[in-house]
UniProtKB/TrEMBL annotation:
Domain Retroviral polymerase SH3-like, residue spans: 17-75
InterPro entries for the chain: RVT_2 (IPR013103), SH3_retrovirus (IPR057670)
Chain ranges of the Reverse transcriptase Ty1/copia-type domain: 186-382
Name this protein carries in UniProt: Reverse transcriptase Ty1/copia-type domain-containing protein
Superkingdom assignment: Eukaryota
Region (Disordered): 122-146
Higher taxonomy: Eukaryota, Sar, Stramenopiles, Oomycota, Peronosporomycetes
């Protein structure tokens, strides 16, 4: 899975499916309320289907699709509820956003389909609340079940507080403990009393459920990051630029791998950023993170009962800092050059090494490496 997200399949419809499209007949009380059409895809601009109307020889964009012949009655009902749910979400954003959305869709429809009168979305949106209130209990239960068909796990917590209230609290606590141990093992910081007037940055926990290739839960990851948005130029950061490998370079590596018959191998470096030292002339202090317990021996050392007067003085880089990418890039460049690699002039993130008639190529994208060579042994040797 490329996006690492479970796709929502409730509104997928077969290309070419015959259907009925609702037509607003408020100005035509005796006119038809629907027309026959053929679904030819989903709109890229707004939520809705692109439907060809043979009678008018036009393509319209609408959510008012009913009686899709390739779907069962239950699937048609589910399709309608999905659209009602999307409209409810728009309505919850407030009247200003709602009016903006309606105006945007109306303009789009008027611009693309001026030959066809009566196609509307506004009426459907303004009646969404009343329609939903008329859903009976059986239909509501059916909707609740269908909403979770493709959602098999909790969404990742957005904050420490959410993680502590999650049903997976124990998993997230274990992940945070693992992260703190890794940072301490890398000697990233030292607990101190910050000098008076010091600029102390806050920290934030980022939680992520890691999935394997089959889309199943592999592990729970918690990462501690500094709030780089609080940094002040010249106080706790300076230069920040770090090169990123071009997509064309990735293609070159893959083409070479194919030509040499040696599959390109991917690898990532765990806790990469914290392996780089921070700038010697800058002092960076972090507030004690949520979930971190300062040992009593350290509290006694500073003569304090709690950790509110203490801070972490960084000795190395940390995720979230504005300069973290640059510091890591410099460290990796140093290590690769020491290993005999040379940096390519056309792309600063591409390295190569000639060794006994063999050639090894390394592409760098932040902390991910893409490696191939003229022989499999050289690839294995690198890793």
């Amino acid at each position: 899975m490329l996006t690492k997200k479970v796709p929502v399949l409730s509104d997928i419809v077969v290309f070419g499916s015959p259907c009925t499209v609702h037509q607003d007949a408020k100005n035509k009380s005796l006119g038809a309320r629907g027309k026959q059409g053929v679904i030819i895809g989903k709109s890229d601009e707004v939520k809705g289907y692109r439907v060809y109307i043979p009678r008018d020889k036009v393509v319209v964009v609408t959510q008012h699709v009913k009686n899709v012949e390739t779907l069962t009655k239950e699937q048609n009902d589910q399709l309608r509820r999905v659209h009602l749910k999307e409209i409810d979400e728009v309505a919850c954003d407030g009247s200003t956003q709602k009016e903006k959305t309606q105006a945007t869709v109306h303009d789009e429809m008027r611009r693309n389909h001026s030959k066809v009168g009566g196609w509307t979305r506004e009426a459907h949106m303004t009646r969404a609340t009343s329609r939903k209130s008329r859903e009976d209990n059986a239909e509501q239960k059916e909707e609740e079940v269908s909403d979770v068909v493709n959602v098999i796990r909790e969404s990742d917590p957005k904050s420490y507080g959410q993680a502590m209230k999650s049903g997976l609290k124990d998993k997230w606590v274990a992940a945070m403990d693992e992260e703190l141990r890794a940072l301490e093992d890398n000697d990233v910081w030292k607990v101190e009393v910050p000098p008076k007037g010091s600029h102390v940055l806050h920290t934030k926990w980022v939680f992520k459920t890691k999935l394997n290739a089959e889309g199943e839960i592999d592990r729970f990851k918690a990462r501690l990051v500094a709030c780089g948005n609080e940094q002040v130029y010249g106080v706790d950061y300076g230069l920040t630029f770090a090169a990123v490998m071009e997509l064309s370079t990735v293609k070159v590596i893959l083409v070479l791998a194919l030509r040499w018959g040696v599959p390109a191998r991917h690898g990532d470096i765990p806790n990469a950023y914290v392996k780089a030292n921070k700038e010697e002339h800058l002092e960076i202090f972090l507030a004690i993170p949520q979930g971190m317990t300062v040992p009593d021996v350290i509290l006694k050392q500073f003569g304090t009962q709690g950790s509110d007067k203490l801070a972490l003085r960084l000795k190395k880089s940390l995720y979230g800092l504005k300069q973290a990418g640059r510091l890591w890039s410099k460290l990796l460049d140093t290590k690769l050059v020491e290993a005999g690699f040379s940096r390519c002039m056309s792309d600063a993130c591409l390295y190569f090494r000639h060794d006994g008639g063999e050639l090894t190529i390394v592409g760098v994208y932040v902390d991910d490496l893409l490696v191939t060579a003229t022989s499999q042994d050289k690839v294995e040797e690198f890793f």
